[in-house]
Design goal:
Layout: H1 2-19, E1 21-26, E2 29-30, E3 33-36, H2 40-57, E4 63-65, E5 74-79, E6 89-94, E7 97-102, H3 105-118, E8 122-123, E9 131-132, E10 139-142, E11 146-149, E12 155-157, H4 163-168, E13 173-175, H5 180-189, E14 192-197, H6 200-205, E15 206-207, E16 216-217, H7 247-264, E17 270-273, H8 287-291, H9 296-313, E18 319-324, E19 344-348, H10 366-382, E20 388-393, H11 398-401, H12 405-408, H13 415-427, E21 432-435, H14 447-457, H15 463-475, H16 479-494, H17 504-507, H18 510-528, H19 533-562, H20 565-581, H21 583-589, H22 594-612
Parallel strand pairs: 3-4, 3-5, 5-7, 12-21, 13-14, 14-17, 17-18, 18-19, 19-20, 20-21
Antiparallel strand pairs: 1-2, 1-10, 6-7, 6-11, 8-9, 15-16
Helix pairs in contact: 2-3, 7-9, 13-14, 15-16, 16-18, 16-19, 18-19, 19-20, 20-22
């Protein structure tokens, strides 16, 4: 009798669960169809959904073109005007239907990935370690679901990955390509393309042609009056600029810049053309140039205006941007933007701020105060600006952060700081964001890069809830131990090493000893995950990172406490050895590339050897 009651209760519970969900797969068999257009981004979204559902359950859901009638449970992917702002999306469920819709086709792709997250997948970073695909024989979506997601930043530009990864991670741009297959893929996903860089030197060095034939090296031997003059009036080639007060020079440079665009990226959606990567613009100092009384940014935007004017005449349809960076950092004093900057973009790149090493831009550190004032200067200059504004930040940039223990170990910026900064930039009128982060690693795990991408969509993100989601899904049964270790490591890496009143061996090296203890603690985490090789690899990477942190802290100890260059040098060489010996494993995880490992083993180590320990 009691067994009969128990089975009855179980049956009622199972029925209740079934009523509250839309089944896609049951016991490894398809229970729903995917209904979508046969072409374009919604079709790609359907393909994404079909692929991952099959990887989860083994079931191949039928695909039905939208113009055909389908009975039974279905997932409808469609474009509907007013579904969401920008390229956002909405997901709704009712009875036997799941609807993924967007106002523009690309939004359907983001909606498909969001639906996959709803059923358990996670896309933290590159495969194999960065993606979580749970194995389920039965897959359902809860009934009554209503998710509306609209990006905080309209334009989201990636620093890593191809079109498929960029779409998966919520970016709406990808790098421009001349490869036909890549172009077709980009079009199918619906991404926009960008191309930018310090292009002026290339324009000075070579002649480009409107018909796109290979450029030729410029010969200035009979054009000495085109070359920039120094303070003494001597004209010489500097590879960066020309004498722009010379009408012939100016006309040639503008036409050559336009030909560069038409040769390299005539169909790009966004181009930003920059001067040389130097602290100042090496402008001509001749009397005519000086007589203008223009600032470097005045000259830059004067030239930029004319390039933009000619590009439009030649039929370019994209956005043309300029950069506020180093020599063009200060707002112009006299030159106004062409047509109030219509179809132009301000790319604001506060590189000397040091990649948030002084905390978020909203704090009272003198460097951050200076850049807030600089932004206000640009806002005043822009006035009735008709274009867009994009932030070019330097989060995780080891070129800037590699000399700091917390920086070289990928703990700067803190997610709370990113959140505060993004909210600040939005309030200042910026609607685009890019992060320059050489190298583009996901080491020791994709947590911070994933939070960065989430913040591009939601600047009110609950960071603590997002962290819980990450650790639970990425580390499984070992989540608690790994979280405790990672949190304590972060605290120790930011802890200042100081010379105490007593023997330094008594106190100052305590963080190093504790970091080594935490490394050993991760062996407990490995025992928690049993035979799951993916989880073991994730924890092994974390263990390597903690070892790296201990060495980085030990290097700091010799810099600030012992001042023993020989020992400090040995520690830096141990860091190099750590990455070189684990190169194959790290690359295999997908979290680092060969170039990333080389950057950490060579560039960062060499920098610290040179600055602190007497050279390479």
């Amino acid at each position: 009798m009691m067994w009969s009651i128990s089975w009855a209760i179980l049956t009622v519970c199972l029925l209740a669960m079934a009523v509250g969900a839309v089944e896609l797969v049951r016991n490894g068999k398809p229970k729903a169809s995917i209904v979508a257009p046969s072409e374009g981004p919604p079709s790609y979204a359907a393909e994404v959904l079909l692929n991952y559902v099959e990887r989860m359950s083994g079931a191949k859901l039928p695909f039905v073109p939208e113009d055909q009638t389908v009975k039974g449970t279905k997932v409808v992917i469609r474009v509907r005007k007013g579904a969401a702002k920008l390229d956002g999306f909405r997901i709704r469920t009712s009875k036997d239907t799941v609807v993924v819709e967007a106002s523009i086709p690309r939004g359907c792709v983001y909606g498909a990935y969001a639906l996959l997250e709803e059923i358990g997948c996670r896309f933290y970073g590159p495969e194999p370690l960065g993606v979580v695909i749970p194995k389920k024989k039965t897959i359902s979506v809860r009934d009554g679901l209503d998710i509306l997601k609209e990006p905080a930043f309209e334009n989201r530009l990636p620093s890593f990955g191809g079109p498929e990864l960029n779409a998966c991670w919520g970016f709406n741009f990808t790098g421009h390509s001349r490869n036909q297959k890549r172009q077709e893929l980009i079009k199918r996903i619906g991404l926009k393309t960008w191309r930018w860089g310090h292009i002026w030197p290339e324009i000075v060095e070579r002649q480009f042609f409107p018909d796109g034939r290979p450029p030729e090296k410029m010969d200035y031997s009979d054009k000495q009056d085109w070359l920039p003059a120094d303070e003494k009036g001597t004209r010489r080639y500097n590879g960066e600029t020309l004498c722009f007060s010379n009408p012939d020079t100016f006309k040639w440079f503008v036409e050559n810049a336009v030909n560069w665009v038409l040769t390299n990226c005539p169909d790009a959606d966004y181009i930003s053309m920059w001067s040389a990567d130097t602290a100042t613009l090496a402008l001509c100092q001749c009397e005519k140039c000086q007589a203008k009384g223009w600032s470097p940014t005045d000259w830059y935007l004067h030239i930029h205006n004319e390039i933009w004017r000619l590009l439009k005449v030649r039929g370019f349809k994209g956005v043309f941007g300029w950069i506020a960076y180093h020599g063009s950092e200060e707002p112009p004093q006299q030159v106004k933007l062409l047509e109030f900057g219509r179809d132009m973009d301000l790319l604001y790149a506060p590189r000397p701020r040091g990649a948030s090493m002084h905390g978020p831009i909203t704090n009272e550190h003198s460097v951050n105060v200076a850049y807030r004032e600089n932004i206000q200067g640009w806002r005043k200059y822009l006035g009735n600006f008709k274009g867009t504004r994009t932030v070019f930040e330097y989060y995780f940039d080891l070129v800037l952060l590699g000399h700091l223990p917390a920086g070289r170990t990928f703990l700067i910026p803190k997610p709370e700081g990113m959140k505060e900064e993004m909210r600040f930039y939005l309030a200042q009128g910026f609607n685009g964001f890019f992060d320059c982060d050489p190298p583009s690693v996901f080491f020791p795990d994709p947590l911070l890069k994933w939070l960065y991408r989430k913040l591009l969509w939601d600047v009110n993100l609950d960071i603590e809830a997002a962290k819980r989601d990450f650790f639970q899904n990425y580390y499984g049964p070992a989540a608690r131990i790994v979280r405790e270790v990672r949190d304590e490591v972060e605290k120790l890496m930011f802890e200042e090493i100081k010379w105490p009143m007593w023997s330094p061996a008594h106190y100052a090296d305590r963080p190093i000893k504790r970091l080594r203890e935490l490394e050993a603690k991760l062996d407990e985490a490995i025992e928690k995950v049993g035979d799951d090789e993916i989880l073991k690899q994730r924890i092994r990477v974390m263990k390597l990172w903690v070892h790296y942190c201990a060495l980085a802290k030990e290097s700091e100890y010799h810099i600030k406490i012992t001042r023993e260059g020989k020992k400090g040098r040995e520690v830096e060489l141990s860091i190099r050895k750590l990455f070189e010996e684990n190169r194959d494993f790290l690359v295999k995880t997908g979290l680092l590339t060969e170039g990333d490992v080389r950057f950490l083993a060579e560039s960062v180590v060499n920098y610290n050897l040179t600055i602190y320990f007497g050279g390479r």
